[in-house]
Amino acid sequence: MESLAEIVVQPPHSATWQVHLDRSMWVGGxxxxxxxxxxxxxxxxxxxxxxxxEDPFGRLxxxxxxxxxxxxxxxxxxxxxxxxxxxxxxxxxxxxPETGATHRVDDPELLLWVHCAEVxxxxxxxxxxxxxxxxGEADRYLREQRASAAHVGLHAExxxxxxxEMDAYLKHMRPRLKVTxxxxxxxxxxLWPRLPRHLRLLxxxxxxxxxxxxxxxxxxxxxARRMYGILPEVPQGAVTAALRAFRAGMNALPxxxxxxxxxxxxxxxxxxxxxxxxxAGYDLARGLKGLTDPRRxxxx
Length: 300
Known about the structure:
GO terms for molecular function: oxidoreductase activity. It holds the Pfam family MPAB_Lcp_cat. Residues 17-248 form the ER-bound oxygenase mpaB/mpaB'/Rubber oxygenase catalytic domain. InterPro entries: MPAB/Lcp_cat_dom (IPR018713). This protein is an all-alpha fold. It has 16 helices and two strands. Helix 5 (56-71) packs across helix 6 (75-91) and helix 5 packs parallel to helix 15 (264-279). It has a two-stranded antiparallel sheet. The protein has one domain (4-282). It has helices spanning 4-7, 15-20, 25-36, 40-49, 56-71, 75-91, 108-128, 135-151, 163-173, 181-191, 210-218, 222-228, 236-251, 255-258, 264-279, 287-290, and strands at 93-95, 102-104.
């Protein structure tokens, strides 16, 4: 029988599974993009090297695929996607229009900002939405995410591994952040996205997305919302209530229904993970989320 380390990158009882299986991740993902956009060089890197303007959802789904593979995939799958991402980043460059200087996309400072904006958003949104994690479990989540950071080329010891370290890092970065025209455009795209060609049939339902985009925006830190100033402020108690309602509704969806939002390759990876875990003796009667219950672990 395979060992657990050979089956998945993170074990089912990890803090990472608790956070990454929570459907509030969709809000956390968009919030993370909005936060990342406040770093001028990081935002220009996205603007100059991706199709974000035409397909913001594509970027979100590709991020979901990466997160899924380094959480639920096999070690081989995680290593493979890490090599792929590092290879793409190595060949991309960013031109700073203010100075004319050229920067590497895989600059450690940029990679660290993108990582921290992303994982801090996942954690903050999940906990605010009602996921019960103790301070120790929240710290453990960030420590576990150092492995994810290593897949994109960062040194684990350089990445915040506790809530206190993450708070200190974000405070340190705030003087370097700026609202650029690209950042404003990116947030407006995320609030009212232009649907890609293959989703144009959904255009009549597009207004239903607006409350979701606004919810993502309002979960940003107060200082970030103040920097953007795109939407008027609303009571944060109402934001928390809306987030909890969204999370409850999404968490009620059966796994097969929810996973239709992912790319086909992501769905295949998740099914392969289920198959490996079932072969190792795990009870998947309640799906992947059910495995976070210690009682669902196979006998030693």
